[in-house]
Design a protein that fits this description.
This protein has 106 residues and is mostly beta strands. It has one domain. Helix content is 0%, strand content 58%. It contains no helices and nine strands. Strands 3-4-5-6-7-8-9 form a seven-stranded mixed β-sheet, with no helix packed on it. The chain has a two-stranded antiparallel sheet with strand order 1-2.
Length: 106
């Protein structure tokens, strides 16, 4: 930390980022309130926008779980669902080959 910034090293480069930036790991529901996320692979900053898609029900474990659906687009493109406790219960995105990848809580 350098004052109100972080020093980020990635891919052989040194960068700075606001101390309030969150990593783009998806596990923290706080990413839904961000416009910039820290790329966890190379340390760059990614501009994102979040669209609230509303309430939904998803499969998690062996049950249907009420969840809230959001679409994150920009530097990272993912559909995410968080349950009422802000626990990530589903992630969906397009693979490079055009197939759909889905992570579900078990």
């Amino acid at each position: 930390m350098e004052g109100d910034h972080l020093r980020v090293a990635g891919d052989g480069a040194q960068r700075t980022a606001a101390a309030t930036i969150l990593p783009a790991s998806l596990w923290n529901a706080g990413i839904l309130r961000q416009q910039t996320l820290l790329n966890t692979l190379d340390g760059t900053q990614m501009r994102v926008s979040v669209q609230d898609k509303g309430d939904d029900t998803v499969r998690a474990g062996d049950a249907n779980v009420p969840a809230h659906h959001f679409t994150i687009s920009g530097g990272v493109n993912r559909d995410v669902w968080f349950d009422r406790s802000n626990r990530l219960v589903r992630v969906q995105f397009a693979a490079k080959d055009g197939s759909t990848i889905v992570y579900e809580l078990r």
